[in-house]
């Protein structure tokens, strides 16, 4: 066995009690393996990633480890990131499109601390971007890795709760149930009633869950120059989309897929092509719309683009 | 005035500082020592060790202190710690028939070889608050008896001798390890038992209870319940023999369950099995009930559609670290998805209004 010993200090950073050094040989300093995971675990994850890239959209089971953050908070993405990082990497972490949401901050500082890698908020500077719920607006380039945090990797899960059944359905490309569901949506609502985690077909074979990104982001997955990796820690699955793969959102000829965003332009940078967050301003229900991608918005603003209420940007900085 | 959600880092640091302070409580009172937790909250320590899958009372006590007594949080701390530990070797299967029992009871026989030992149990206590404890009253030491020196055989083996109970097949197959391989279904019984041993006490309690109330009832009696210390041995290849490296406290429960028999097989009793670290009676009995319910296929019983019979349902949901993470994660921001649904609902309402107007115009 060549597994690395890692001290427990990740868990007790807030604890002021002293351990009994007689019985437990705790190291007071942080001495993690690079990017926290031991090398054997990283190898296991890399093997799963390679298999996933070789079979685009196929969910590869992997022996997900218990991470020092809860399941459901990005443990799959964190393990994939940890297995991919090299010391030269520059990491960006977003949640809801923003670099400064609390969980993004927490994950970014985890890698800054355990891997000592550079971090950035700029999409085009990052070599690896870990995301929850969004794809950046800035087009990704070759050499970049986009790592998605995935809660439920199985696109058929809410139609058939049993893993034993859904694996069979994938093996046989038996996706009729999904089409029936989408068709029933149309007959009931006049629309496909799925606004996020909108299912896609990868390279004409596997139906895949794109993670809970808004369907606005779906087209960005197709023909993407970056490598897209998906990690579901609790559900112990990894899947992937190699660069320039064809990714198609499921639809019908007479009800083609459409992107969906709040109409209008960003109040801060004037972008009319970005996905917008609706911000409630007061108890009268006044609203403003701003880019969900904070890097996209501030970069545009720096380049002189303005929106209706750009003065808010300036006063905040001042 | 629009205020962007900035300063996450600072907010997190502040929150954790506050947590540290509130964990300590009023400094008028002494801080809890790990020794106090280990010695006086021993059943909490046992649960954290069992569901944390790590036998270390000191670390479990630390986790309980750090988690402010939230046992699932403490289990989480232990799990995250243990997952990084190197595997130095694998112990031989523990021999529970040579357990040094502090408690050993059977509900199926009035008297058993070696005798019924009640041990330190809440059973038959009257659940009256003992105000002497509030007044720091020391309750005197218990009287002592000679420890049993001989091995204590399992009661159910007596039935086995008469072929009255289904015999467990001896297998030398290497047991799976859920902490190193992803769960694959259908799972072997060894993997199922590992999952149940790590599983949430409350979840298993509810499921076990449901079998008693008719959801795949399996007519269980506690054939034997025993608590005590067992030796842990590892084989040293260089020496060519096993050496004892320590001992652990475990609770073991075997249930006797009815079995109808079939055309080819005469009626015979069957078993359910539970084993956990520490003194964990409730969990171990519930585990045995659920184990027995999950065995319907191999025992040729019908699938009654009960939750406790459903391997995928039980194994996918019994782990409280997985469950609490996912249940609680919905407090994380989801506003991007919500926005997308909001736009979709607005769009559908606009369409519906248009349709309605058209109908009125017609
Ligand atoms: Zn903007």
* Helical coverage of chain A, percent range: 25-40%
Arithmetic mean pLDDT of chain B: 91
Helix amount of chain B, in percent? Answer: 40-55%
Radius of gyration of chain B, in Å, reads 26 Å
Q: How would you write the strand order of the largest sheet of chain B?
A: 1-2-3-4
The H-and-E topology of chain B, N to C, reads as HHHHHEHHHHEEEHHHH
Strand content of chain A: 15-25%
Low-confidence stretches of chain A: 1-29
- Which structural class do the helices and strands of chain A define? alpha/beta
Classification by helices and strands of chain B? alpha+beta
Q: Nearest-angstrom radius of gyration of chain A?
A: 21 Å
Strand content of chain B: 5-15%
Put simply, the count of helices of chain A is 8
Shape of chain B: globular
Q: How many domains of chain B?
A: 2
Would you give an account of this structure?
The complex is a heterodimer of chains A (318) and B (362). By secondary structure, chain A is α/β, with parallel strands linked by helices. Chain A has helices spanning 39-54, 75-84, 102-114, 163-171, 176-189, 218-221, 294-302, 310-317; strands at 60-61, 90-95, 118-119, 128-132, 145-149, 200-202, 206-208, 227-232, 237-241, 247-249, 276-280, 287-291. In chain A, the strands form three sheets. Chain A has a seven-stranded mixed sheet with strand order 1-9-8-5-4-2-3. In chain A, strands 7-6-10 form a three-stranded antiparallel sheet. In chain A, strands 11-12 form a two-stranded antiparallel sheet. In chain A, β11 and β12 form a beta hairpin. In chain A, α1 (39-54) crosses α2. Chain A is globular. Chain A starts with 38 loop residues before the first helix and ends with a helix. The model of chain A is unreliable at 1-29 (pLDDT under 50). Chain B has two domains: 9-82, no CATH class; 96-120 and 145-168 and 180-324, no CATH class. Chain B is built from 13 helices and four strands. Chain B has helices at 8-24, 34-40, 42-52, 57-66, 71-82, 131-134, 156-161, 189-198, 201-212, 281-294, 311-317, 320-328, 335-361; strands spanning 100-105, 220-236, 241-257, 270-277. In chain B, 33% of the residues are buried. Chain B is globular and about 90 Å long. Chain B is an alpha+beta fold. The chains are: A alpha/beta (318), B alpha+beta (362). The interface between A and B is large, with 81 and 69 residues. Bound molecules: zinc ion.
């Amino acid at each position: 066995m060549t597994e690395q010993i890692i001290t427990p200090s990740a868990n007790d950073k807030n604890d002021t009690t002293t351990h009994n050094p007689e019985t437990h040989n705790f190291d007071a300093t942080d001495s993690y393996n690079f990017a926290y995971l031991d090398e054997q675990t990283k190898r296991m994850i890399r093997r799963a990633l390679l298999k996933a890239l070789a079979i685009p959209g196929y969910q590869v089971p992997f022996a997900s480890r218990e991470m020092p953050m809860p399941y459901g908070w990005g443990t799959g993405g964190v393990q994939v990131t940890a297995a991919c990082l090299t010391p030269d990497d520059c990491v960006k972490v977003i949640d809801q499109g923003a670099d400064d949401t609390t969980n993004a901050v927490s994950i970014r500082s985890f890698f800054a601390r355990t891997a000592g890698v550079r971090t950035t908020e700029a999409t085009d500077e990052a070599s690896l971007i870990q995301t929850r719920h969004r794809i950046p607006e800035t087009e990704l380039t070759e050499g970049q890795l986009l790592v998605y945090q995935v809660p439920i990797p199985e696109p058929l899960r809410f139609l058939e709760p049993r893993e034993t059944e859904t694996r069979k359905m994938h093996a046989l490309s038996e996706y009729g149930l999904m089409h029936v569901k989408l068709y029933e949506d149309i007959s009931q609502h006049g629309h496909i009633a799925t606004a996020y985690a909108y299912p896609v077909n990868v390279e004409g074979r596997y139906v895949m869950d794109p993670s809970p990104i808004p369907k606005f982001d779906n087209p960005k997955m197709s023909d993407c120059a970056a490598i897209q990796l998906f990690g579901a820690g609790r559900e112990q699955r990894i899947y992937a989309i190699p660069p320039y793969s064809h990714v198609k959102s499921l639809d019908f000829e007479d009800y083609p897929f459409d992107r969906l965003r709040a109409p209008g332009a960003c109040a801060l940078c004037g972008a009319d092509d970005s996905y917008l967050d609706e911000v409630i301003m007061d108890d009268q229900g006044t609203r403003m719309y701003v880019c969900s991608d904070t890097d996209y918005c501030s970069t545009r603003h720096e380049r002189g683009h303005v929106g209706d209420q750009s003065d808010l940007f300036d006063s905040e900085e001042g | 005035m629009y205020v962007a959600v900035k300063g996450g880092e600072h907010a997190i640091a502040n929150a954790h500082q506050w947590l540290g302070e509130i964990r300590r409580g009023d400094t008028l009172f002494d801080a809890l020592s790990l020794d106090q937790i280990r010695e006086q909250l021993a059943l909490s320590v046992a649960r954290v060790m069992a569901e944390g899958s790590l036998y270390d009372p000191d670390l479990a006590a630390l986790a309980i202190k750090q988690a402010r007594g939230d046992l699932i949080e403490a289990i989480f701390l232990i799990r995250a710690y243990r997952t990084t530990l190197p595997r130095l070797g694998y112990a031989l299967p523990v021999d529970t028939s040579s357990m040094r029992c502090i408690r050993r009871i059977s509900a199926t026989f009035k008297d058993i070889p070696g005798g019924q030992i009640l041990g330190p149990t809440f059973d038959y206590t009257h659940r009256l608050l003992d105000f002497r404890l509030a007044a720091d009253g020391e309750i005197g030491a218990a009287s002592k008896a000679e420890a049993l020196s001989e091995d204590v055989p399992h009661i159910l083996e007596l039935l086995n001798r008469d072929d009255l109970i289904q015999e467990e097949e001896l297998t030398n197959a290497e047991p799976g390890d859920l902490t190193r391989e992803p769960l694959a279904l259908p799972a072997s019984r060894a993997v199922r038992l590992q999952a149940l041993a790590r599983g949430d006490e409350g979840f298993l309690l509810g499921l076990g209870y449901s079998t008693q109330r008719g959801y795949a009832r399996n007519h269980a009696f506690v054939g034997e319940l025993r608590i005590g210390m067992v030796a842990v041995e590892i084989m040293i290849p260089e020496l060519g023999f096993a050496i004892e490296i320590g001992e652990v406290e475990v609770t073991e429960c075997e249930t006797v369950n009815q079995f109808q028999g079939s055309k080819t097989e005469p009626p015979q009793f069957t078993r359910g099995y539970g084993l956990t670290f520490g003194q964990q009676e409730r969990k171990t009995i519930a585990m045995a009930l659920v184990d027995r319910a999950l065995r319907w296929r191999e025992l040729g019983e019908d699938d009654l559609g009960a939750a406790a019979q459903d391997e995928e349902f039980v194994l996918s949901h019994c782990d409280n670290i997985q469950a609490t993470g996912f249940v609680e994660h919905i407090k994380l921001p989801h506003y991007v998805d919500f926005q997308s649904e909001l736009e979709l609902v607005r769009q559908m309402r606009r369409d519906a209004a248009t349709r309605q107007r058209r109908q009125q115009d017609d």
